[in-house]
C-alpha cells in the first residue's frame, strides 16, 4: 500500500517542477523548489519505511536543515539585488 | 492491509498533489505561497504523522517528531522570506490596492 503514497508524492514533485521550469519570476522558482524540498523529505521518510532502514530518517533531518538554509540564502540574495526597490518600503 | 497510518499517508499524498496543482493554477507568487503551505503542512506533516502512528515503538517516532517540529518552525520563516524578497525585488501583487505601499 505504501507504494501508492510514493506515486502520489512523485506526481506532486513533477507538477511543482513544471512551475519551477515555467515560473515567470525568480521568487516563483524559489517557491517551487522549496515545495519540492518539503515533498522530498516525505519521500525519504517513506523510503526509510520501505527499505526498513532507520538511517534514511537522519538523512531527511539533515536535508530539511540544508533546504531551509538554501531558501533563506537565495531570498537574501534576491532581496539585496541592485534593482531591488528598498527605499520605497523602508520609508 | 490498511491501517490508520496508511490512511493518513494517502491523505498526505493527495494533499501534496492538490497543493502542487494550486502552485500551477494561482496567478501570482503571493497566492502561490498559500499553495506551498498546503504542500508543506498538509502533505509532508500528514505523511510524517502517518509514519509515527504506524511505527509507534521504534526510533523512527522520535526522528519524525523532530522533523515535524522543525518543519513547523522553519516553513513560515522560509515562506515569509521568499515573499518579502519578491516584494522588494519588484514583483507587483495582482490586487486592486497595494496596502503595503501606502
Description:
The complex is a heterodimer of chains A (about 90) and B (about 100). Chain A is mainly alpha-helical. Chain A has one domain. Chain A is about 80% helix and about 0% strand. Chain A is built from 4 helices and no strands. Chain A has helices at about 1-20, 25-50, 55-80, 85-90. In chain A, helix 1 packs antiparallel against helix 2 (about 25-50) and helix 2 runs antiparallel to helix 3 (about 55-80). The longest helix of chain A has 25 residues, at about 25-50. The mean pLDDT of chain A is about 85. With about 100 residues, chain B is an all-alpha fold. Chain B has a single domain (about 5-90), classed as Helix Hairpins, CATH 1.10.287. In chain B, helix 1 (about 5-25) packs antiparallel against helix 2 (about 30-55) and helix 2 runs antiparallel to helix 3. The N and C termini of chain B lie far apart (about 60 Å). The mean pLDDT of chain B is about 90. The chains are: A mainly alpha (about 90), B mainly alpha (about 100).
User: Could you list the spans of chain B in which at least 5 consecutive residues all have pLDDT below 50?
Assistant: none
Q: How many beta-strand segments of chain B? A: 0
Major β-sheet of chain A, in short? none
Helix content of chain A: over 70%
Please give the count of helices of chain A.
4
What is the overall silhouette of chain A?
Answer: flat
Please identify the top-level CATH class of chain B.
Answer: Mainly Alpha
Number of domain units of chain A: 1
Structural class of chain B: mainly alpha
Mean pLDDT of chain A: 86
Low-pLDDT runs of 5+ residues of chain A are none
Rg of chain A, Cα atoms, Å? 17 Å
Please state roughly what percent of the residues of chain A sit in beta strands, choosing from under 5%, 5-15%, 15-25%, 25-35%, 35-45% or over 45%.
under 5%
Mean pLDDT of chain B: 88
Beta-strand level of the residues of chain B, as a percent range? under 5%
Largest sheet of chain B: none
Radius of gyration of chain B: 17 Å
If you consult CATH, what is the topology of chain B?
Helix Hairpins
- Give the quaternary arrangement of the chains: heterodimer
Gross morphology of chain B is: elongated
CATH architecture of chain B: Orthogonal Bundle
Amino acid at each position: 500500500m505504501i507504494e501508492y503514497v510514493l506515486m502520489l508524492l512523485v506526481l506532486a514533485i513533477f507538477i511543482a517542477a513544471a512551475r519551477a521550469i515555467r515560473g515567470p519570476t525568480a521568487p516563483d522558482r524559489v517557491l517551487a523548489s522549496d515545495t519540492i524540498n518539503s515533498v522530498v523529505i516525505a519521500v525519504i521518510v517513506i523510503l526509510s519505511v520501505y527499505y526498513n532502514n532507520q538511517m534514511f530518517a537522519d538523512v531527511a533531518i539533515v536535508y530539511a536543515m540544508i533546504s531551509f538554509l538554501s531558501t533563506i540564502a537565495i531570498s537574501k540574495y534576491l532581496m539585496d539585488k541592485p534593482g531591488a526597490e528598498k527605499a520605497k518600503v523602508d520609508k | 492491509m490498511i491501517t490508520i497510518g496508511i490512511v493518513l499517508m494517502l491523505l498526505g499524498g493527495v494533499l501534496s498533489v492538490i497543493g502542487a496543482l494550486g502552485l500551477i493554477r494561482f496567478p501570482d507568487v503571493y497566492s502561490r505561497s498559500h499553495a506551498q503551505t498546503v504542500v508543506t503542512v498538509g502533505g509532508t506533516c500528514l505523511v510524517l504523522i502517518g509514519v509515527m502512528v504506524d511505527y509507534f515503538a521504534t526510533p523512527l517516532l522520535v526522528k519524525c517528531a523532530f522533523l515535524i517540529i522543525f518543519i513547523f518552525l522553519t516553513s513560515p520563516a522560509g515562506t515569509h522570506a521568499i515573499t518579502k524578497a519578491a516584494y522588494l525585488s519588484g514583483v507587483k501583487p495582482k490586487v486592486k490596492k497595494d496596502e503595503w505601499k501606502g
